[in-house]
Amino acid sequence: MGTVFSFDVRGGEPTAVRAALDEAVAGLHRADEVFSTYRDGSEVSRLARGELTVDACAPEVAEVLELAAEAERVSDGWFSTRYRGRLDPTGIVKGWAVERAARRIAVAAGARGVSVNGGGDVQLLGTPGAERPWRVGVSDPLRPGGLAAVVSAAGAAELAVATSGSAERGAHVVDPRTGRSAVTDLLSVTVVAPRLTWADCWATAAFAMGAREGLRWLESLEGVEALLITAGDEVRCTGGLAGWLG
């Protein structure tokens, strides 16, 4: 998927943990093979060209497209699986794949805590230790190497943190209404929610919306909190974000 993945597993029987990690890594490679828009022979590329139907693809394709359709509905079209008129579900695939990998490890390994990080987007399950919550640093887009905030998963059985922005990858988020790079006053949007599948989608959609509309929309989503940083170094937060900082 063009990025780095890391795993932190606490507890569980070592042999079971190793087997679960191997299975999770294989699943991530499989997701890349099926969904990559850079591989001409991937099922998604063939589906986009009309060479396959959804029913002829791996079951994961229908699952992801259904989730993406729900994300498009909830975001009123600001999240989309179309890129310049072509099918491209990659905006949801990474978050979905990371979340699925974390859950596979937790179940198969019987681990006390699992953290899977895919290119800075993180799914957290359980805890790393007694009285020790998972903590995730949020990069400051205006100060390389610095942190804008630290999210704590204290009190949550599962939590995800996803960031969308232009600091790392440039202007890669597209405005689905125009098909061009989103014109936005934001540098980054970090979303905190139970599931990375949705946190990743909501961060992308809110970034394309811009600070004012994005914050208003994120405030309307149940169980979702967010941190938005503008090009003018203004920090905006949803009302309940403070409960996750520490």
Short structural summary:
The protein is of the alpha+beta class and 246 residues long. It has helices spanning 14-35, 43-48, 59-74, 90-109, 196-209, 211-219, and strands spanning 5-10, 82-83, 86-87, 113-118, 121-126, 135-139, 147-152, 158-165, 174-175, 180-181, 186-193, 225-230, 235-237.
Textual characterization of the structure:
There is one protein chain. Helices cover 35% and strands 25% of the residues. It has six helices and 13 strands. It has helices at residues 14-35, 43-48, 59-74, 90-109, 196-209, 211-219, and strands at residues 5-10, 82-83, 86-87, 113-118, 121-126, 135-139, 147-152, 158-165, 174-175, 180-181, 186-193, 225-230, 235-237. The model has no long low-confidence stretch (mean pLDDT 93).
Secondary structure: elements and pairs:
Elements (H helix, E strand, L loop, with lengths): L4 E6 L3 H22 L7 H6 L10 H16 L7 E2 L2 E2 L2 H20 L3 E6 L2 E6 L8 E5 L7 E6 L5 E8 L8 E2 L4 E2 L4 E8 L2 H14 L1 H9 L5 E6 L4 E3 L9
Antiparallel strand pairs: 1-4, 2-3, 4-5, 5-8, 6-7, 8-11, 9-10, 11-12, 12-13
The biggest sheet amounts to: 7 strands, antiparallel
The residue ranges in which pLDDT falls below 50 over 5 or more consecutive positions are none
**What's the helix count?**
6
Strand order of the largest sheet: 1-4-5-8-11-12-13
Order of helices and strands: EHHHEEHEEEEEEEEHHEE
| Average pLDDT number | 93
Tell how many strands the DSSP assignment holds: 13
Fraction in helix: 25-40%
Tell me the span between the first and last alpha carbons. 31 Å
> Structural class given helices, strands, pairing?
alpha+beta
